[in-house]
Write a structure and sequence with these properties.
Order of helices and strands of chain B: HHHHEEHHHHH
CATH architecture of the largest domain in chain A: 3-Layer(aba) Sandwich
Structural class of chain A: alpha/beta
Largest sheet of chain B: 2 strands, antiparallel
Largest sheet of chain A: 6 strands, mixed
Number of helices of chain B: 9
Largest interface: A-B, 68 and 54 residues
CATH superfamily of the largest domain in chain A: P-loop containing nucleotide triphosphate hydrolases
Helix content of chain A: 25-40%
Shape of chain A: globular
CATH topology of the largest domain in chain A: Rossmann fold
Number of domains of chain B: 2
Strand order of the largest sheet of chain A: 5-6-7-3-8-9
Distance between the termini of chain A: 32 Å
Number of domains of chain A: 3
Number of helices of chain A: 17
Strand content of chain A: 15-25%
Radius of gyration of chain A: 24 Å
Oligomer: heterodimer
Strand content of chain B: under 5%
Distance between the termini of chain B: 50 Å
CATH class of the largest domain in chain A: Alpha Beta
Helix content of chain B: 55-70%
Shape of chain B: flat
């Protein structure tokens, strides 16, 4: 397990003096006036409102911000007194997206990739690869396929790739934002073990503070307007500056940003009923068999379960996008309104006013060049008149605080804004049922609260909501019902719904 | 899903891919030079013999080589129907002249396509992309940045396939999937291009953060061997080419295309 001794590199110190960075083509700097000193071996949790430039700082420290053609540097940023680009290999960076940073097809080769680039001799590479994989607890054969790893395993692989390079500084940019709770714990524990074993300086960016408190010994908060807002030992910063932190969207331990009032829907109005449903994306290969489920108007149904169990497939099937493989899926007349009862047989345009879908990754559903045009896509497909279209879009822009972005390209929005926009595009056509896949992924406390209020508002208007989620707080504080999908043995019987999520979900 | 398969557990899988590609070159040259049934048929017999001997017989007759067996006769038929007429006319219909000469050319073309494509397909199925990259960069000394960049891009093809499916469902959900196929596919293709560029950008950052593209001389964790086995593979390729040419010349059917 130990990578220390002759193996470890001396920890790096970080110094920023009036540092800032402005992306080419942007008017305002992403970071400005930053003065910060981090000593060798310190473990820092870096917090701040979205847009405060946390990622930019990490990229700057990793030396991957690019040259003068990509942006403008202000002040100076030094690793052990040297420019980050000159100190390449001293800092290792792990990014948020587990899929986008696997370079090679085999586990061993992927870890070796960085060592090859550093010019390490072949005899030395493989022992270092094995030691790094051991350190992050990935006990897999070196020729195991990286494509077969889970999200948590991929993040640990990325960490091993960085670790093998023996960096004096480890930079983690929201390494657990896209993982399920098990994956989060896996990665956090691996980082903790690595930090102890190597003694390297550690800087983590993450919204959810409680995950990282056991690992870090210092908290630094960046201000939205530049500079450092707060800095010190975790307990002190979190207790003394709690209100500032909450205002910046930081998710403090044990906080629930907002709790939904109980649903007022008295009598149940079933909108969609599934019985003995077999679901799958590939013909003939069912991921779940015999699903029994009911979706009621005016209630939020959370679908939970481990990664790979078929939650997203179930959501897409309920949304009328994938045909079921067997069994029955029927929409009641409240939804079908004259069409036949099977949603997957409806035309694309007929779905709009009946069932809306919000995909896990908002980018997948953007089809227009501006926020306003994006919101008009649905109403246009419904052939609504100009005035009606404009009224609906303006109302949504205002309700979701996207007015100032009406002309912006959807792809340039922040994560929270993209999510709000993707929900807005689905509700612009006023569907009776809304299906959401991981609506709260990667949201900070403020955007989480806004989103939750929006969804509960829809619920109280009588819309039925189905949300696939890993987010335990969402299940606990927002959903009215909880449906758990379990891993099925070849022909095992079905999963069980449990009503009253608020009482059942707590662990 | 991923198309960058891990080294398949097949015979010849551990041979340097550069040698496997090189071995097919001499025969291809011979078969491009001459247009006759004999040389190509001899080559096919040799190929079947060699692949069966090294234990690739299963792959040879598997559905994965089926496209070759289907495409080759189709090319042949078009030569029979539309090839330059010569010799006795067997059948005529409008532009179609089936003559003794065109039937010969048709048969020769069919055999040629099989003889060239069969070893290419079978050998390619034994190649792991990572090994190919190692071979290209270490054996042929192609620039590492280019080779590894292409290898990393290949890995993204798998996620692009998933993207395409999801984009299709997303468009149905947005109410715009009832449009004509052409318009829908164009829009979807553009969306996928945007997603791919973004993914590629992130991967490039991750690679750069791990020292890729720095000025340091790069080392290789895996050695691309080029030894006896590789030379034997190339020699076998040369022998097959030589045998095919010799038999064709001795039987008098050698027929250089430009003569």
């Amino acid at each position: 397990m130990s990578v220390r001794g002759e193996a470890s590199a001396p920890a790096v110190s970080v110094r920023a003096r009036g540092w800032g960075w402005r992306h080419g083509g942007r008017r305002h700097p992403a970071v400005r006036d930053l003065d910060l000193a981090i000593g060798p071996g310190e473990r820092v949790l870096l917090l701040g409102a979205s847009g405060a430039g946390k990622s930019t700082l990490l990229h700057g420290l990793a030396g991957v911000l690019g040259g003068d053609d990509e942006g403008e540097t202000l002040g100076e940023l030094l690793l052990d007194g040297r420019h980050p680009a000159a100190a390449r290999g001293r800092a290792g960076l792990v990014l948020q997206d587990p899929d986008a940073q696997v370079v090679m097809a085999r586990v061993g080769d992927d870890v070796a990739f960085g060592l090859e680039n550093l010019g390490v001799a072949r005899d030395e590479i493989w022992p270092r690869v094995r030691a790094a994989l051991d350190a992050v607890g990935l006990n897999l054969p070196l020729d195991h396929a990286t494509a077969e790893l889970s999200g948590g395993q991929r993040q640990r692989l990325a960490l091993a790739g960085v670790l093998a390079m023996r960096p004096g500084l480890i930079l983690l940019d929201e390494p657990t934002a896209n993982l399920d709770p098990d994956g989060v714990r896996e990665v956090r524990d691996a980082v903790g073990a690595v930090a102890v074993a190597t003694g390297a300086t550690l800087i983590v960016v993450e919204h959810r503070v409680s995950t990282w408190l056991p690992v870090v010994d210092r908290v630094v908060v960046l201000g939205a307007a530049g500079g450092v807002l707060a800095d010190g030992p975790p307990e002190q910063v979190l207790s003394e500056r709690a209100d500032d932190l909450r205002a910046a969207g930081v998710w403090l331990p044990h906080d629930v940003p907002w709790r939904a009032p109980e649903s007022t829907a008295g009598t149940r109005h079933p909108l969609l009923e599934a019985s003995h449903l077999d679901i799958g994306r590939v013909a003939g290969v069912a991921v779940q068999r015999g699903v029994d489920l009911r979706v009621d108007a005016g209630r939020v149904l959370a679908i939970v379960g481990p990664n790979g169990v078929g939650k997203s497939t179930l959501a897409l099937t309920l949304a009328g996008l994938l045909p079921p493989q067997d069994g029955r899926l029927a929409a009641s007349d409240l939804v079908a309104r004259g069409l036949r009862s099977e949603p997957w047989r409806w035309r694309s345009r007929e779905l709009l006013t009946r069932i809306g879908t919000v995909f896990q990754s908002p980018e997948h559903q953007f089809v227009a060049g501006s926020v306003r045009a994006e919101l008009e896509v649905g109403p246009r497909a419904l052939k609504l008149g100009e005035a009606e279209r404009r009224a609906r879009v303006d109302e949504l822009l205002e309700a979701l605080r996207l007015e100032h972005l009406a002309g912006a390209n959807p792809f340039t929005l922040s994560g929270g804004e993209k999510r709000r926009l993707s929900v807005a595009t689905a509700i612009a056509t006023r569907p009776r049922l809304l299906v959401l896949d991981e609506p709260t992924f990667g949201q900070d406390a403020s955007t989480w609260r806004e989103l939750a209020k929006l969804l509960v508002g829809l619920r109280d208007d009588g819309v039925a909501l189905v949300a696939v989620t890993h987010d335990e707080v969402f299940v606990d504080a927002i959903s009215d019902e909880r449906f758990e999908l379990r891993v099925q043995a070849a022909d095992a019987s079905t999963s069980a719904p449990s009503a009253g999520a608020r009482r059942g979900a707590r662990r | 899903m991923s198309i960058a398969s891990i080294r398949p557990g097949l015979p010849l899988a551990r041979v340097n891919p550069v040698a496997k590609v090189a071995a097919t070159v001499p025969l291809s040259i011979v078969l491009i030079l001459t247009l006759d049934v004999v040389s190509a048929s001899v080559a096919i017999v040799c190929e079947i013999l060699v692949f069966t001997l090294v234990g690739l017989g299963g792959l040879l007759w598997s559905p994965r080589t089926l496209p070759v067996w289907i495409a080759a006769p189709l090319t042949g038929v078009s030569m029979v129907l539309y090839g330059a007429p010569s010799g006795a006319v067997l059948w005529e219909f409008g532009l179609i002249h089936v003559t003794e000469g065109s039937v010969q050319i048709g048969l020769a073309t069919t055999a040629r396509v099989i003889a060239i494509a069969l070893p290419a397909v079978v050998l390619f199925l034994t190649i792991d992309p990572t090994d190919l990259a190692d071979g290209l960069a270490q054996t042929l000394r192609l620039p590492a940045r280019f080779v590894l960049g292409a290898l990393a891009a290949l890995r993204l093809v798998g996620s692009s396939i998933d993207d395409w499916r999801t984009l299709h469902l997303a468009r149905r959900a947005r109410g715009i999937a009832d449009r004509g196929v052409l318009r829908r596919s164009l829009g979807q293709a553009f969306a996928m291009l945007v997603l791919s560029i973004r993914r590629g950008g992130t991967l490039a950052t991750a690679m750069e953060a791990r020292g890729f593209g720095a000025d340091t001389e790069r080392t290789w964790a895996r050695a691309a061997h080029f030894g006896r086995v590789e030379w034997i593979v190339i020699v076998v390729g040369c022998v097959v080419a030589a045998v095919s040419a010799t038999v064709a010349v001795t039987t008098g059917s050698w027929n250089v295309v430009w003569s």
